[in-house]
């Protein structure tokens, strides 16, 4: 690969001291250590109005689309909200689609206040498959997330390792291509 792969993380929490955002920053450290250029999309700083299907280019939506389209891999991070994904992430995701995700490698990360994040990861997996993205089998779910971070730093070495591996894999599996040599066709 000539250019550095570009890995984008989208944080679905608007919280000031978001555990999701902190976790994603560790994933991007993993990606950076693997040679990637990285960007964290902190939705607090973006103007992403409530999605209106009749006006799909409001606010910073165009820039969001361009950034996602440029990405070789995208890491989606969300807090578990009522067993689903956050409204902030879903709203941003609604502006995006196959133009951004088709053939793109996608990492998934969820933080929970309690012990259950499986349904949230499943929702993200389903959404990404719908827009023809490729999800990385290594996923990160963090239970009791507020107890895992202190002063912005992660306190659990095993979870830190798991998060960093997600970032590494986002790089290692970026730009995957179909093997057309066997049958001479892609799909
Ligand atoms: C509206 C709302 C719904 C939530 N629903 C759940 C839930 O269903 N299960 C759970 O374990 N935690 C739930 N939580 C707790 C969050 O998942 C948890 O605090 C998360 O780590 C917050 O992420 P953040 O620090 O990035 O904002 C909920 C929190 C909010 C505000």
Write the layout of secondary structure elements.
Blueprint: E1 6-11, H1 19-33, E2 37-42, H2 61-70, E3 73-79, H3 87-95, H4 98-101, E4 105-111, H5 118-130, E5 134-135, E6 140-142, E7 149-150, E8 153-154, H6 157-172
The protein binds flavin mononucleotide (FMN).
Keywords, separated by commas or semicolons:
187 residues; two-stranded antiparallel ribbon; alpha/beta; globular
Q: Tally the beta strands.
A: 8
Helix content: 25-40%
CATH H-level homologous superfamily name? Flavodoxin domain
Tell me the series of helices and strands, N- to C-terminal: EHEHEHHEHEEEEH
Low-confidence stretches: none
Please give the count of helices: 6
Global outline: globular
Mean pLDDT: 95
Give me the secondary-structure category.
alpha/beta
Biggest sheet layout: 6 strands, parallel
Small molecules bound: flavin mononucleotide
Q: According to CATH, what is the topology? A: Rossmann fold
Euclidean distance between termini CA atoms: 24 Å
CATH class membership: Alpha Beta
Radius of gyration: 16 Å
Strand content: 15-25%
Number of domains: 1
């Amino acid at each position: 690969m000539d250019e550095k792969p570009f890995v984008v993380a989208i944080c679905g929490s608007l919280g000031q001291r978001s555990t999701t955002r902190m976790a994603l920053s560790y994933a991007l450290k993993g990606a950076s250590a693997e040679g990637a250029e990285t960007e964290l999309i902190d939705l607090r700083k973006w103007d992403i109005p409530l999605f209106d299907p009749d006006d799909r280019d409001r606010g910073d939506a165009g820039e969001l689309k361009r950034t996602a389209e440029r990405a070789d891999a995208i890491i989606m991070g969300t807090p578990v909200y009522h067993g689903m994904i956050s409204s902030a992430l879903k709203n941003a995701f609604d502006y995006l689609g196959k133009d951004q995700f088709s053939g793109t490698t996608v990492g998934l990360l969820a933080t929970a206040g309690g012990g259950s994040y499986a349904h949230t990861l499943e929702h993200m997996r389903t959404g990404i498959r719908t827009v023809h993205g490729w999800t990385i089998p290594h996923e990160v779910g963090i239970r009791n997330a507020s107890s895992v971070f202190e002063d912005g730093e992660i306190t659990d070495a095993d979870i830190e390792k798991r998060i960093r591996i997600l970032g590494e894999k986002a790089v290692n599996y970026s730009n995957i291509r179909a093997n057309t040599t066997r049958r001479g066709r892609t799909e």
